[in-house]
């Protein structure tokens, strides 16, 4: 079967030594679509914490510039994944993120949560909807990659293993996921942005499909009702059909990163130094809001 060739990663790769190379392949080729979808949902997860969504709602940054925030995040993270965190492009992207974040007082545990979501949500997505699960080598490579990025962003108390990251994420969510009106408002803003990418005949289905793809703790925190069981069945069957098709086409997929595509915000190109909020839009006084850090970490 044609898909077997792509399903098997390079047997010579070792996760600790080759994690940059492995993650380049995962994000740009093997699971490019899957990782984008998983990280979009990971972003939505961050809005289930009232202390995060309250400051986002107050600042209005995402409400006023949603497409630019999406594109800036995608371009910064894509440069890190495509070129590696110690490449000139990767170093410039991390430096730009650090400059943005230096204007805010952000709790270290919130940074850790963003890293944990970036690491664990793609694995979770592929277990449910991917054309194949991550191998253990790939999962460990993701761990080493995101841990190295966290180290270069000066995040403290980085968990020493993938399992420790996953446990931190579960504990954080159990303690801090709660419903609030701000959660609902910011979640709606995200969905409205996604709807804008589709024609009018399709856009009404975006919130319904998103509701199928999230879990019950997220629904409760966002104030969303349980989805229609028939829609759940339809979406899951559709993703299973996609899984079958991608397996057959996997050997023909060409590398593609977010940074290689034109964006709505920068149709003529961009410089890494111009990514992020315009200086005049940065709110004062400083907050503990992890939003800007999250936006940098949760897109490819």
Largest sheet: none
**Total number of beta strands:** 0
Mean pLDDT: 85
Structural class, judged by helices and strands?
Answer: mainly alpha
Rg over C-alpha atoms, rounded to the nearest angstrom: 18 Å
Number of helices: 15
Assembly context of the chains: single chain
Bulk shape: globular
The overall number of domains is 1
Strand content: under 5%
Helix content range: 55-70%
Distance between the termini: 29 Å
* Low-confidence parts: 1-7, 280-300
Order of helices and strands: HHHHHHHHHHHHHHH
What this model shows, in words?
With 300 residues, the chain is mainly α. It has one domain (19-270). It has helices spanning 3-7, 15-30, 32-46, 50-59, 61-64, 66-83, 88-101, 108-128, 136-152, 162-176, 181-195, 205-213, 216-222, 229-249, 291-297. It is globular and about 45 Å long. It starts with a helix and ends with a helix. The model is unreliable at 1-7 and 280-300 (pLDDT under 50).
List its salient traits:
15 helices; disordered N terminus; 300 residues; mainly alpha; disordered C terminus
Short description:
By secondary structure, this protein is mainly alpha-helical. It contains 15 helices and no strands. Helix 2 (15-30) packs across helix 3 (32-46), helix 3 crosses helix 8 (108-128) and helix 6 (66-83) runs antiparallel to helix 7 (88-101).
